[in-house]
Amino acid sequence: MGKVNGGSIVERTSQRKREKEKMSTMARLGVINTICRGLSSFPGKVSRGQGSSQSPPLSDQLFNSTPQSGSFRLGDSTFYSLIRHYAHTADFASLDNVLCRMKLQNRVFIEKCFLVIFKAYGRAHLPDKAVDLFHRMSHDFHCIPTVKSFNSVLNVIIREGFYHRALDFYNSSVNAKNTNISPNVLTFNLLLKALCKLGWVDRAVEVFREMPLRKCPPDVYTYCTLMDGLCKEDRIDEAVFLLDEMQTEGCFPSPVIFNGKLDKAVSLLDRMVSSNCIPNDVTYGTIINGLVKLGRAEDAVKLMTAVQERGYGVNEYVYSALISGLFKGGKSEDARKLWTQMMEKGCKPNTVVYSALIDGLCREGKPNEAEEVLSEMIDKGCTPNAYTYSSLMKGFFKAGNSHKAVQLWKDMAEHECIHNKVYYSILIHGLCEVGNLSKAMMVWREMLEKGCKPDAVAYSSVIQGLCNAGSIEEALKLFHEMLCQETESQPDVVTYNILFNALCNQNSISHAIDLLNGMLDRACDPDIATCNIFLRTLREKLDPPQDGMEFLDELVIRLLNRQRVFGASRIVQVMLQNFLPPKASTWERVVQELCKPQKVQAAIDKCWRNLDS
C-alpha cells in the first residue's frame, strides 16, 4: 500500500482527526487557554504557592465574551473554569490572582468554587490555608459557607492528623453566633473519627448518642468508626453490642464498606474471636465475602476456621463464597475438601452452594461431573437458578460440546426456567464461537421476538460471527444499532477490537482509523489487543512498513489531552514491551500525570514540618 498525495491513509486520516480535535478543543477552551498562556508568560509571575505582587493581565474582553449561566454574570463561568484549572494544577499563586480579580469586579462567589479550592488545599497538605479561606468566605467574598464547606475543611484538617485542631475548628464554627452550619451525618462521622484517634472514646459515645437528637441518625460508617475506637481500647463487649444494635436499626455492613477498610475489619473480627465475642452471620460473612472478592480466599478460609474453633457455626452462604473463590483462584482441590467438610459438619447445601460447585467444576473443564451435581441438586429439592444453568452451558461450550449446551437450553423449560437475556447471550456466544452462525441468528431472532433486549455480549458475539463469515457490512450495521441502545448494550473495547481486526484484515485501514477516532470520542480506551492489531497492520499492510511508534505516541497524547491517564499509561506499557520508546515530551507528560509532583513536594514539606515541631 503506497503513499498517496504525500502521506499514507493512516497519516491523512489522523491529520484530519487532529484538525477536527484542534478546532473543537479551541471552541470549548479557547478563552481559558489564552488566559493560562498569558499567566504563564507574564513577567511578574511568581513561583507556585507564593503571593503575587501584581495582578496578571487578564483581558476584560475575554471575561465579557461568555454567555450567562443561571445567576452568573457574563464571564463568571470563565472565572469558575480558571479556578478549577488552577486548583487541579495546584497553582495557588494564579488562583489567588483570580479570586482578587473577581473581588475587584464585584463578581458573585458561589460555594462550589470554594469546595474545589478546599480539595486542592487538602491534596497539597495545606490545612492552614483551607481554614483561613473558610473564615474569609463570608467577610471577604460575601459567600455564606454551608455544612458542605465546613465538612470539606474539617476533613482536610483530620487527614493531616491535627485532631485537636479539628475539634477546635468544630467548636468555633458550629457554636458561633449567626452561623449557617448545621452538622449532618458526615460532620459527626468526622468528629467521631477525631475523638477516637485521640483516644477519647467515652466522649465519642456521648456524641454518638446525641446524633438522633440532632436529627442525624447514624449510618454504617458512624457505627464502624465507633466500633474501631472501642476495639482499640479493648472494649470488645461494647463493640459487639454496637454491632448488634447497628443491624437492629437496619444498618447492615455492605461489602463495599468492608472492602474499603477490609484489613481493619479483619483485625476487628480477630479481636472479637479471641475475646469469644463473635458477631452474627451477616457481619463475618460479609468480611469473608470481601476477602474472597479481593482474591484472598485462602485468608478467608483461615478466618472461617478461627471462627469455627471458637465453637461458632458457619452458614451455607459463607461456604458458597469460599468454594467459589477457591475455584476461581485455581485451588480446586481445596474447594472440594471444603465441600466435603461442609457436608460432614451437617450444613445442608442450598442452591447457592450447589451453583458455586457446578461453576467451579465447569471452570476446571469437567462439565459432565458438574451435570451430575445438577442432577443431585434437583433430587435434593434445590431449584437451579440462572447462575447454575449459565455456568453449565458455558462449561459445555468450553469443552467443545455445543450439542450438549443446546440440549441443556431446551431442558431448562422442563424445569420452569424462563429463558432470559443471560441465557440467550451465552447460547449466541457459544454458537458463534463454534462457527454455527445460522443457528446463532435463529436464537438471535427468537430473542428479539420475545422482547428480550440483547446485551453487549450478545451483540459482540453476533458481530464476531458475521465478521468471521466475511459479512463485515452486516456486522457494521449491527454495530451502529448498538450505538443507539441503552448503556448495557453499548459497544465496549471487545466489540471495537472485533471490528478493527476484521477491517484491517480486509485492508480497510482508513475505516478502522475512523472507527478508532469514534471509540476515543465515546470515552472507550484502547487496550493491549487494540494496540497489537494496529501494530500488526502497520507493519504488514503498509508499503513501506511502519513500526507503529508514531501512531501509538500520538494515541498516548490524545488520551492525555482527554485526562485519561490510565489508558495512556497502558499504551506506553505496550510501546515499551515492543521496544518503541515514546518521545521525550510524551514521556515527560505521562510521568507528570502519574507522579503528580506537587504530591511529592507536599510530602517533603510535611517531613520538614514534623522535624521542626
From TrEMBL:
Name this protein carries in UniProt: Pentatricopeptide repeat-containing protein
Keywords, sorted A to Z: Repeat
Region ranges (Disordered): 1-23
Classification via SUPFAM superfamilies: TPR-like (SSF48452)
Bias (Basic and acidic residues): 13-23
PPR repeat residue intervals: 184-218, 219-253, 280-314, 315-349, 350-384, 385-419, 420-454, 455-489, 492-526
One protein family per Pfam: PPR_2
TM segment ranges: none
Coiled-coil spans in chain: none
NCBIfam families, per the entry: PPR
Listed PROSITE patterns: PPR (PS51375)
Entries under InterPro entries matching the protein: PPR/CCM1_RNA-binding, PPR_rpt, TPR-like_helical_dom_sf
PANTHER family hit by this protein: PENTATRICOPEPTIDE REPEAT DOMAIN CONTAINING PROTEIN-RELATED, TETRATRICOPEPTIDE REPEAT (TPR)-LIKE SUPERFAMILY PROTEIN-RELATED
